[in-house]
Amino acid sequence: MHLHRRFSSGTYDPFSVFRPSQIASELHFPLSDSAKLSISPKFVFRSLVILELNYLTVMEDAKAIKIDDGMPETVFGLVINHIHDQRDRDAISLVCRRWFEIDGLSREHVTVALSYTTTPQMLRRRFQNLISLKLKAKPRAAMFNLIPEDWGGYVTPWVEEIARSFSCLKELHFRRMIVRDSDLELLAQSRGPLLESLKLDKCSGFSTDGLLHITRSCKKLKTLFLEESSIIERDGEWLHELALNNTVLETLNFYMTYLVNVRFEDLERIARNCRGLVSVKISECELLDLVGFFRAAAALEEFGGGSFSEQPERYSSVSFPPKLCRLGLTYMGQNEMPIIFPFASLLRRLDLLYALLDTEDHCLLIQKCPNLEVIETRNVIGDRGLEVLARSCKRLKRLRIERGADEQGMEDEGGVGCLELEYMAVYVSDITNASLECIGTNLKNLCDFRLVLLDREDRVSELPLDNGVRALLQGCCKLRRFALYLRPGGLSDVGLGYIGRYSPNVRWMLLGSVGETDAGLLEFSRGCPSLQKLEMRCCCFSEYALAIAALQLTSLRYLWVQGYRASETGHDLLAMVHPFWNIELIPSRQVVVNGQLGEQVVVEHPAHILAYYSLAGQRTDFPDTVFEEEPNLMF
Predict the structure, then answer these.
(1) In the chain, what are the domains?
(2) How confident is the model at residue 64 (pLDDT cuts 50, 70, 90)?
(3) Where is the Transport inhibitor response domain (predicted)?
(4) Which residues, listed in sequence order, are joined to residue 378 by a DSSP beta bridge?
């Protein structure tokens, strides 16, 4: 069972590994908060006590189940329909074959974290009645242009299977995948009358012609999400067809797609026809042209995008919908900022990533937003802005501070006074152990923490950050996701060992420029019992140490490394080879990027290792830029 526990997306097949002695240990699965809220506590308590105290008498061939107190199977059928958390469902499906079958028949949503870990046919056999499917493909590093564009992640085989099977499927989410116009055409033809949600999230390979097939045929579409996808723009007919054909749209998002053929008349018609429209995020569109849209979109709660190209005083005529509480205006400057003031106290989410505000502007605006729960901005906010945030926004749950041109450090404890924070991601040019200790002392609800230490400053106040990292991990016991990207000397082998020791519940981790020797990595890998996905960059570790660490991390199912001490032959990676474990190599390569002044610069991208568990075997669509690592080819 241990091997198949790694496939939390529901793509495992545990038929061949049932043993009664192992089944007993699986009965003590925890329920998520969502499951607890959706079922009668007394009913759940009774059901689970029966399972734990009486156990199951499971025949060795797993063909029969008997519950000692006679609880009928229909009771379990009722319970399982109220359990929606995938980890809970995974644990349930491992109890016995019959529960495995019931889970497969009743599961409504599945996330496949890497599309090469299974096949469309295997997924169809396992989950026949899916309503919602999310597929991810390219490694996360693709978002930072670190992965070759032709790496893979083609959606075509999945769309072909969806067209043939999955008759109940209504919601599709493709993330970091290559989607062709022909894929969208097939989806429209096969799923047009049923499809309610289509998310093409950071995808590429398609054009507005493909979108036209979707908007013309999928008249029940409630969600169309295209954010940060690379779309070839032919014209704006796709949006016009959406305006003509749809009356049920609730979410429209083509933010950061750089689509320019957008007619504000189409947006206005969508707002008039779709009375349930609650979220719209668009590309650059003059805000003054959207006055009619805002007037018609009475139910709108979220808006993102727009642009400002007229004199500031003209924007006083813009009136936003009364329910608007999530806002992100692109290119908003100091002079345009007052248009937010009348409803600033109603805002729960504020995106300032593409606003043109300085530190003082941040301070002024944040003071007027006491009910903020989410804020995204750049590190121009500075320590002063963080102090204002801590004083003014006591309900804040998510804080994201990305890199900007004006980089300032977070050095004092005043910037981390939002005690309800659950998510914190910051880019800083300076940091101290005391700041990290303060986070560990005060932010007890943190589930996701990410810190990037920039290399602009010649000198950092205090390195290594071993003690601060230890205090943070000891204090933030709820952490499930953890990223720490430092600079050489930022974390010693001792500090790396602390991460392994004090991260019992972390499932995803990104580490950059940490540790000093292989010994630090091996000490780290003796801990982290829950770690499933590990990403590393710019580290000093050898191939052999990486291979041994991958084996010692008992829950690991995905490893991506860029920048390591590569051997001449690659033989050292043989230590990592074991069943169901695919290994891919991307050699070092030269890439042309834009410099700070817009000039083209050639940079060297170090070699990559990508390794992951898969029930599908080695993939067959390797491009020339990727090499399959096979033991029999390594000598």
Answers:
(1) 2-107 (no CATH), 110-261 (3.80.10.10)
(2) very low
(3) 129-174
(4) 402
